[in-house]
Each structure stands twice: as C-alpha cells, then as structure tokens.
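Section 3.1: Structural characterization of target chains.
Under the original work plan, the team committed to producing a structural model for every single-chain target entering the pipeline before any wet-lab resources were allocated. The record below documents one such target. The sequence was received from the expression subgroup and is listed exactly as submitted; it comprises 287 residues.
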Amino acid sequence: MALTAVATDIITTKHHVSVHVLFVADTAGTIRKLSVVPRSRQTCLLEVLQPFAAPTTILTMRLLSEAGSLYLGTDSALVRVPVQRCERYRSETSCLGAMDPYCGWDASGLDERHCDADGRCSPANWTGLGWGDWSPWSECSVPCGGGVQTKSRTCDGDSAACLGPSRVEQECNVQRCKGDWSCWSEWSACSVSCGVGRRRRDRECRATAAAGSADVICDGAATSEEPCEMTSCTSLEGWNQWSVWSLCDARGEQHRARHCMVSEPGGELCQGEDRQARLCVDTGDAE
C-alpha cells in the first residue's frame, strides 16, 4: 500500500543516547509506529494506529514533541493522536517487551501500577489517555435483505484526547432474502381461436416470516408456458361465430350454435358440428 505521510521523533532513553521513532501513514489512514535502535540500526514495528473508523487519506502529518502528539490533516478534519499509549501495558512483562521508547516500568514496589511515559507509576484507578480498542463487530440486525452491525470503543481518559466517533456501523447481509413460491395459477386461455397457440400460468414469489418486508427472490421462473391446439383454422371457414351459451335447461345443460354462411357447404367449408352442449357451469356466459 502506498505511503502518504511520514513524521519522526528522537527519544532519549535509559539504555540508548537516542532512539529514532518513525510514524508512517498509508493511503487507508493506518499509521505504523517504528523504532530504529542506534547500535543495531534495526527497525522494529512498535504499534499500528488506526485513528479513523473507516479508510481515510491522511494528507499531512506533523509531530509536536512538546505536546506529545501527532496532528493529522485530512480533507475534512484535523485530528490529534497521542504518540504514546503506555496505559495499554498492564504488566511489567508486557511493558518492557513492547520496547516502546516512550514507555518504561516503575519498579517502586507498589501493589498496583501501570506502565507510563518516562517510567512513572500511576495510581491503580488511572485510566490513561485516548481511545481504547474497538470492540468486535456486533451480529447483523437481519439475516438477509440488508442490515446493520456496529462496533464501539470507550474513551480511557480525558475526553479532549478522544477525537472521532465512539460508535460506527456498516451494512451487512445485503444479499436478497429467499422467498417461497405460491401455487401455480390456472392456465390462461389459448392465445389463438384456431390452430396452435400458447397458454401460460403464473406464480408469485412471497416473503417468508424470516424475511419480513424485505425484497425477496425465489429460485426458478415465475411464468410457465406451453403450446395449446385449437380447432383447425381451415375447418372454421364458412361458419359464423358461435352464439353465447344458453341458460341451463331442465337437464342441467347449456347449448350454443353456429350457422353456415354459404349456400352450398362442402369441401373445406362448414366442416364440423353446428351445435354444442355442455354441463352447466357457474362462470357465466362464454364464447
């Protein structure tokens, strides 16, 4: 990842005349704190700082030794970050093992003590400065359809040293929810009155209880089609339209009729029956 800014500091320690400390920022806004020990010229990674909840480009970075702070300039804010966070080390082993030139351990014999800048021991109830670590991301608020998860951090000391948000959120489980198909509808009428046509039926993708009101998706097609065959168009030549179905008669039947429009039927004219009957239905008249 490319670098955007570098700041340096020189610290005088107990064991070395001077230790060079480098603060290196990348394009995501992450700052790596490195130390260079003069005798070995070895570079060590001391700490990775993430002052922003989301990737943010640091345009400028300046270190003020007197204030013990880095000042970060972005396109929308100026942020102060302490150069030392010795309060993170709660034991002598962790404090000395970190090899942070800003921190030392006070061996004064107090029952409870903390690693502090310049090796000073602070009271057990001292909370330090700056933000604590971010909590893990919470569970997503929904299993699908787009929810929210959060993480938070607490200010360990003076609120003036805690710049930025204490809680952030991000989208999660943005994939569409799975739904359930309804039953298929009845087949539609054939698309033609004679010959071969098409008919179709439909079904609806419906949300499940888990999906709630979220937009859902179902596997498979919502529409099905198949061919349908009606009376040959040639056989209809010469006939007029069928009449509407009659009312039900005493035998529970309906009838309809058609008439041949030519004076001399024959050949391909007026083929088929001129009357039809069916059992009564309650759907009303039909063609």
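Confidence is low (pLDDT under 50) at residues 109-114, 117-128.
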